[in-house]
Amino acid sequence: MEKVEIIGPAPSTYTRVARMVCEEKAIPYDLKPLPPHSPEVSAIHPFGKVPVMRHGDFELCESKAIATYLDLSFPGPKLIPTDPRQAALTEQWVSLVNTKMDGTLVRTYLLNYIFPKGSDGAPDRKAIDAVAPAVKEELDLLDRAVAKGGFLAGDSFTFADINLMPILAYMKNFPESGTAMAAAKSLSAYYDRLAARPSFQNTTPPRR
Ligand SMILES: N[C@@H](CCC(=O)N[C@@H](CS)C(=O)NCC(=O)O)C(=O)O
To answer: From ligand 1's centre to the CA of 14, what distance in Å?
Structure first.
């Protein structure tokens, strides 16, 4: 079978998610670190977003679709459970993170630090202060979610955890989110436990 190609830059949270799926299932893959909106990406994703995937003559976009394809096509641990309730809980947490929290934590909070838009090249303090309470609220919500079973979807590791971990990796390292995470004891313990997995270690982006 042809080798899987994951296309997207290593620092991208969603690209890391797709790579972690390959790592968890021991799927041989190559990373092609092209940026969003590059011609090869835009030929596969209608809005030019990363990651996109190529497997032989099959091309696919959207991280969740890529994860589902890889989980169904390759042997190894099932990352999207077959039990209907576990599968639904996995979907639920992917949806909550991708449709709400990614907007708060990554697109609004994190990107203000990483790609500062202030006229002096500094992060926009007003924008960060405005989103900081929501950052804390959402990290607290995740803290409560993992407190019971130790994972997002019940008591076992699923794609929902893979989908969240690259975001938490950034949250640990920025001021307001780092303070909120340190105070969120269950979430911190969850992060430390899952960060030790080879799939996470092997996909660490290069230092900025
Ligand atoms: N729903 C998409 C979101 C992917 C996404 O937002 N990727 C970011 C990088 S982490 C991106 O391509 N941003 C560029 C843009 O939105 O134009 C997925 O799950 O793959």
So the answer is: 7
Of 80, 99, 100, 65, nearest to 153 (Cα)? 80
- Whether 12 is in the pocket of ligand 1, judged by its Cβ within 6 Å, is yes
Could you tell me the pTM of the whole model?
A: 0.97
**How far apart (Å, rounded) are the C-alpha atoms in residues 203 and 208?**
14
Selection from 12, 22, 33, 31 nearest residue 74 by Cα: 22
CA distance 155 to 152: 8
pLDDT in tens, 16-44: 999 999 999 999 999 999 999 999 999 99
- Tell me the average pLDDT of the chain: 97
Q: Is 112 in the pocket of ligand 1 (CB under 6 A)?
A: no
Could you tell me which of 118, 111, 122 has the C-alpha nearest to residue 167?
Answer: 111
